[in-house]
Amino acid sequence: MAINPNDISRPHVWRPAAEPATAKTLLLLHGSGADEHDLLPLGKLLGPTANLLSPRGLVRVDGANRFFLRNDDGTFVEDDIVKNSGELAEFLWAASGEYGFDANNVYAVGFSNGANAAGALLLLQPDSVRGIIAFGTTKSFERTPFKKVPDLTGKRVWIANGVQDHYSPPERTASMIEEFESLGATVSLRMQPGGHTISPQHVREIAAEL
Q: Which residues make beta-bridge pairs with 26?
């Protein structure tokens, strides 16, 4: 069967909760070079009673899975981010119909490339998620291509970065937070002293708030 990025033919893992229809769902978006299995342990730590839905990024670069491309200078291919956001939103709707979870109770969880995909999903497809949890993230767009300025009132954003993470420079993190807050989101920032990694302490703290 051919893979359609917009429906459940897309490679993914579905791990239902005991009561899938009433549980929150965590949309797990892996980092570059990983796949749909990579963040399942993280999802379980963040939401022990949540549904876990983990799709594969369908962009391939030197054999590595990604959700969108980067330019040679390290900047992001923004048209690719927009395209991926639409595909993820369609995938979510298709999956909610197939698996019976509440499409209005979804949080996107991402690391690195997947964290940027989560942030873009919130900005461009705000009705698809209640919030995001972004580890090792940075601002995706130099100038966000809104067709309609989103109202993020009531949305929750957790950002967990490393002080020594060159992928997430402080000025871009600050700009990203300013953008989310200006649109109405409630943002929580956590910083750990290391680099491009996920802090177990951050996971425990966010899980308690989620």
A: 52, 107
Q: Does domain 12-209 have CATH number 3.30.1360.30?
A: no
How far apart (Å, rounded) are the C-alpha atoms in residues 104 and 130?
7
Examine the residue annotation and report whether 165 is marked as an active-site residue of this protein.
Answer: yes
- Active-site option among 80, 175, 188, 196: 196
- Catalytic residue (one of 85, 128, 165, 199): 165
Q: Which residues of 81-106 are buried (b: 16+ CB within 10 A; e: fewer)?
A: bbebbebbbbbbebbbeeeebeeebb
Q: Which helix (H) or strand (E) is 27 found in, with range? A: strand 25-29
Judge whether 134 and 165 are in contact, CB under 8 Å.
Answer: no
Is 112 part of the annotated catalytic residue set? yes
- Angstrom distance (rounded) from CA 38 to CA 57: 12
Identify the band that residue 76 occupies on the pLDDT scale cut at 50, 70 and 90.
confident
Of these residues, 54, 112, 140, 199, which one is catalytic? 112
8 Å CB contact between 49 and 43 = no
Q: Where are the domains of the chain?
A: 12-209
- Per-residue pLDDT tens over the stretch 41-67: 999 999 999 999 999 999 988 888 999
In order, the DSSP letters of 143-188 are S---SS----TT-EEEEEEETT-TTS-HHHHHHHHHHHHHTT-EEE
